[in-house]
Write a structure and sequence with these properties.
By secondary structure, this protein is an alpha+beta fold. Helix content is 38%, strand content 15%. Bound molecules: zinc ion.
């Protein structure tokens, strides 16, 4: 679904649904608005259950002050109005009280978004507005002041957060990415002191995947395998989003069609609603004409070139694995048999590897060592099928969560090398013979 084609009533309802479904608001908290080209503000109503909101419930506050709709506008209408008055470039606002952002709000702190590239790119430096009574003109003035200073995302003291943007989609992405950034920071602090990206590292990410030649794609030549893979990838991307393994702006999935071709997620893309025709085919290093491949395309290409047995690759950013990633630590899989059997020993790669060190990347990730933590950049998993790549990613994230959850109760006790050797024999996990085409053999 393309949100830009929706009427504000529908866009507001669908976005609120997403926020509520993913537990980023309660039924009473949070409000969204869109300012249209006539200066009319479409805003969520006051006192209506967020779980059952419909397009008819949305209120329109006209530029002349008249109100259309069956309810009162949100009680926070004054601060929405004040923000739009302070910043003519903003046309949509998301406000809610998601738990991790509230934790920062009540700790009177702002998150450092240089934690991973998307957090920095979507939010930049985050502002902090002093406390004001909810619904008051005073609160509106305090928040608007921070927007006037140039912040796009502002933490509200002992309250919540506000994210503004040119579109509601963009404001939602800021909000979702910032909440995730806070969750990762909170988890990471139970492990170690997180590290933050330098300007140079952020630039490296910004420049990645910038140019790839194109070829004229003819959909009438599509094979059954390609059709099946396009649909399968979409189903797993949607599932990955639902399971919070991917976010709106983070996560790349690809699958090999044959020796010359693979499919990969496009850039940019809302992972919540990917269609088979959105995926980009890469053939002999060239992309389908008119589409832009994910920034990770060259790293995926290098892995497919080096390892003919790899049929699917996923980059993702699940919160617990991310906590290890920002502390520069690998995830211990000597925890339960499932973890070691599916994920084996997890590699640890410097941030730069996926951009400029494909030799190291392809040596670390093989079908026999399928997972790696990328410092400040999530995780990468390879496998012999889309299902297996997804499964390994889930197991990796579960292992990371279990290790973190064991911290407050005394820390985990790793299985001995003897037990691991026994598992290697029992599940026949001895390294496979490289096949004839394996370029690393
Ligand atoms: Zn609020």
């Amino acid at each position: 679904m393309k949100y830009e084609y929706l009427h504000p009533r529908d866009e507001l309802v669908l976005t609120m649904k997403r926020i509520y479904q993913y537990k980023m608001t309660t039924t009473s908290g949070g409000n969204l608005s869109i300012l249209d080209e006539n200066g009319d503000m479409w805003i969520t109503p006051s006192g209506v259950d967020k779980g059952t909101l419909t397009p008819k419930d949305i209120i329109c506050v006209r530029a002349d002050g008249t109100i259309d709709g069956p309810h009162r506008p949100s009680s926070e209408y004054p601060f929405h109005k004040a923000i739009y008055a302070a910043r003519r470039d903003l046309k949509a606002i998301v406000h809610a009280h998601p738990m991790a952002l509230v934790a920062f709000s009540i700790a009177h702190q702002v998150p450092e978004t240089r934690l991973f590239p998307q957090a920095w790119r979507s939010n930049g430096t985050v502002g902090f507005a002093p406390y004001g009574v909810p619904g008051s003109e005073d609160l509106g003035a305090k928040i608007a002041q921070k927007y006037a200073e140039g912040f796009d995302s502002v933490i509200l003291e002992n309250h919540g957060v506000c994210c503004g943007a040119l579109t509601l989609q963009k404001a939602f992405q800021r909000f979702e990415t910032l909440e995730m950034c806070c969750k990762v920071l909170i988890k990471a602090h139970t492990l170690d002191e997180p590290t933050y990206l330098t300007d140079q590292q952020l630039q490296l990410h910004g420049k990645s995947g910038s140019h790839i030649d194109a070829f004229e794609y003819d959909p009438s030549m599509m094979s059954i395998r390609e059709k099946a893979l396009r649909n399968q990838l979409c189903a797993f991307i949607e599932r990955g989003y639902r399971q919070r393994l991917l976010t709106t702006t983070m996560g790349t999935f690809s699958a090999r069609i044959d020796e010359e071709k693979f499919l990969i997620t496009p850039y940019p893309l809302d992972r919540h609603s990917v269609l088979p025709e959105d995926l980009v085919m890469i053939r002999k290093g060239k992309a389908e004409f008119g589409k832009r491949a994910s920034r990770a395309v060259f790293a995926h290409q290098a892995i497919y070139d080096a390892h003919p047995k790899v049929m699917a690759i996923v980059n993702a950013c699940p919160i617990n694995t991310m906590a290890f990633s920002v502390c520069g630590r690998s995830v211990d899989t000597y925890t339960i048999p499932e973890s070691y059997v599916f994920v084996r020993k997890v590699g640890l790669l410097p941030f730069e590897t996926v951009y400029n060190d494909f030799e190291r990347l392809t040596k670390t990730l093989t079908v026999d060592s399928p997972a790696a933590v990328l410092c400040n950049n999530g995780a990468m998993v390879v496998a012999d099928s889309v299902l297996s790549a997804f499964d390994k990613l889930e197991v990796l994230e579960c292992s990371a969560e279990a290790v973190l959850d064991a911290q407050p109760i005394g820390g985990h006790v790793a299985m001995s090398q003897e037990i691991i050797d026994e598992l290697i024999d029992a599940f026949d996990l001895h390294p496979s013979e490289p096949d004839s085409g394996d370029k690393t053999s």
